[in-house]
Structures are given as structure tokens and as C-alpha cells.
Design a protein that fits this description.
It is a single chain. The chain contains 3 helices and 7 strands, in the order βαβαβββββα. It is α/β, with parallel strands linked by helices. α1 packs across α2. The two termini are 18 Å apart.
């Protein structure tokens, strides 16, 4: 099941404020757990999106990039949240020591940057966000990958 919409609703994300607004909008319709894969080249805004979404969901502490720790855990107002950055992973087997069992919690929010590097070791995506450069800004594209993702996209339209 793959329903594709332009997450910017036919417009690019001209700056970080627009990326923050998109993340806040996605957070505002989230009423269940969600596994969200974040795709895009270095510097495209994956961490900015994750940070903005976690902040919008009520994480009161500083949201750090998990580039070196690989995994950061948070508590939002309504659910546990996990932010992974797998850029430094060469093989999915390297993830075994992280104890990824907590990611299977259906009420959790799981945000994964560079998910292709953890293929086979991660829960399946409900939603994928593809960020790419577009002139001096970015372009966002959301794709549903499950019924849960489809429902969330339906609320965004």
C-alpha cells in the first residue's frame, strides 16, 4: 500500500521554519504510535524535522542528534519516542547491541534517519518522509507504507 502526496502540499520547504511547520503539522495529527523513516542526503533536514516533531509532541528537554549515540529516547506527552540516526552503521547486525525491542511498542513514535542502513533490523515504516534539495530550500514528499500511515496522511489532506 503506497499512497503518495507532496507533504508541502505542492510547495517546497523554503527554509528551516517551513520544515518545522511541516513537522508540527504531522505531530498535530498523530494520535497513535508511528514508525517514520526519514530519507534524504546529508543536510537535507532530517534531524531538523525530527527535532521539531519531538518538540511539538512535548519533549521538554533538548533534542539531540543521535549521530554518535545512534539512539536517543524521549517521553512525549502521550508516548515513548525513539530517534535513531543510522548514518554510521555499516551493517544492520551492528544494531543488535542497541536493544531495539522497545521499538516494537505499537504506541511508540520511532523516527529513523538513514533507515536503509538498518534494513531487516527495524520495524516496518508506517510513513516515509523524503527530503531533498530544491534550489536554496528543500522539497518534502510523504509516502504511506501502512494503514496507520494512510490514516495519518488522510488527516493531513
Amino acid at each position: 500500500m503506497s499512497r503518495v502526496i507532496d507533504a508541502g502540499l505542492s510547495s517546497p520547504l523554503p527554509d528551516e521554519a517551513a520544515t518545522t511547520a511541516l513537522a508540527t503539522r504531522v505531530a498535530s495529527v498523530l494520535d497513535d504510535g508511528l514508525v517514520l523513516y526519514l530519507h534524504g542526503p546529508l543536510g537535507a533536514g532530517k534531524t531538523s524535522f525530527a527535532r521539531a516533531m519531538l518538540t511539538a509532541l512535548g519533549v521538554g528537554e533538548r533534542v539531540k542528534s543521535p549521530t554518535y549515540s545512534l539512539l536517543e529516547g524521549y517521553t512525549t506527552r502521550h508516548r515513548p519516542a525513539w530517534h535513531l540516526d543510522l548514518y554510521r552503521i555499516a551493517d544492520p547486525a551492528e544494531l543488535e547491541w542497541l536493544g531495539l525491542d522497545a521499538l516494537a511498542d505499537p504506541t511508540a513514535l520511532v523516527l529513523v534517519e538513514w533507515p536503509e542502513r538498518g534494513a531487516g533490523a527495524l520495524p516496518a515504516a508506517d510513513l516515509e518522509l523524503h527530503l531533498d534539495y530544491a534550489g536554496s530550500g528543500r522539497q518534502a514528499l510523504l509516502r504511506a507504507r501502512s494503514a496507520r500511515g494512510e490514516a495519518l496522511l488522510g488527516q493531513l489532506l
